[in-house]
Amino acid sequence: MTANEHExxxxxxxxxxxxxxxxxxxxxxxxxxxxxxxxxxxxxxSDDYTELNGxxxxxxxxxxxxxxxxxxxxxxxxxxxxxGSGAGNDCFVARAExxxxxxxxxxxxTGAMIEKAQANASKYGxxxxxxxxxxxxxxxxRDNMADVVVSNCVLNLVPNKKGVFAEIxxxxxxxxxxxxxxxxxxxxxxxxxxxxxxxYAGCVSGAIQKSEYLNLIKEAGFQHITLQKExxxxxxxxxxxxxxxxxxxxxxxxxxxxxxxxTVYAEKEGLTKSNCCPPESGCC
Length: 284
Hints:
This protein is α/β, with parallel strands linked by helices. Helices cover about 30% and strands about 20% of the residues. It has a seven-stranded mixed beta sheet with strand order 3-2-1-4-5-7-6, sandwiched between helices. Strand 2, helix 4 (about 110-125) and strand 3 form a beta-alpha-beta unit. Helix 1 (about 5-20) packs parallel to helix 4 (about 110-125). The chain is globular and about 55 Å long. The relative contact order is 0.15.
């Protein structure tokens, strides 16, 4: 990890520790919880979870940018892993899908978030939901153990996205799959936004080009890559005005492309005679 990558990760860790201690109303009126940065009273990124089974108000900090768990094709008895689990929102929705016979793991590198999620799980008596402190570039789970991986607006915060997709591939069972919501770009983001740490923690400045994002998934060995949902992210002018001049705002809003939330599905390759074990072993 480079010094710059380490600095960015520590900045995000500190910011999300602060977010874990904020009330939900503050998070809901902010850029992915990055602070009360808009007078607009709505969440810029997230979709509405309230109609999904398993939804728990205490676990929804308004930090997502999609509904990956809704699209994740979770079956009863599945083992599900949520990367960047926050206060536990997606984990609890996943638990409603996988049931008592399944298992859900939430991974987060922010101690305050883990404590908040564990308190929520205890409050609701969810004994088959476990939260672990860890880095999603080095997931603290064994190989080939997950049926499904979900993540909501987290990978854009990680400098080494290639490493994360490699880790997802490692922990998924053969033929396992993921559904991930994230922020991507089409066209260039103005440097004044890209270089501002507050916007990075707010899920925008750490985003990469959509084409590059999808190519990383392909290079990690996934197949049947499908764009399940896509929506435009519109940042209110009162936020943009903190970083851009009026002319820059106008140019940014009139350019081709922009900022998008995407939910992407992909599957890990299944076992074949060539990849399940050494040919001489005869185990296949």
